[in-house]
Amino acid sequence: MMASPQCLGYNPQAKLTTALCLPSKQDILKDVKRAVKAIRAKGVYVATDNDPMLNELSKHLKTLKVKVVAQGGDQPSPQLDLAILAQADHFLGNCVSSFTAFAVRERDANARTSSFFGFSTTKQQAKVEL
Fold first, then answer.
1. Distance in angstroms (rounded) separating the CA atoms of residues 52 and 43
2. Cα(29)–Cα(48) distance, rounded to whole angstroms?
3. From CA 118, how far away is CA 104, in angstroms rounded?
């Protein structure tokens, strides 16, 4: 469905779960904390067209001393979000999101890691040797 092949591949047996499509706030907090710990992040940039959960994320990550930010203002720029997401040390996104797919494709082209809410493995650029 939609952009799900980016994390499920083109396997007809792969299951598209609710956790992949619409992760709960608790799952989002858990997955973000796991990613922050894995790369020892000092900051989290939130790009969303919904609730950015800034207060919840800040509280959940308080012991890790991580700064949580999002674009402000009345007219957010999706192009700015994509530019930041493409250059981040790690990207965590929604599996079925076409917006996520744009960021992941850019990251794949530059050998940067990405992962998806509700999905346990990290997507890395495959190493190709000739």
1. 14
2. 15
3. 16
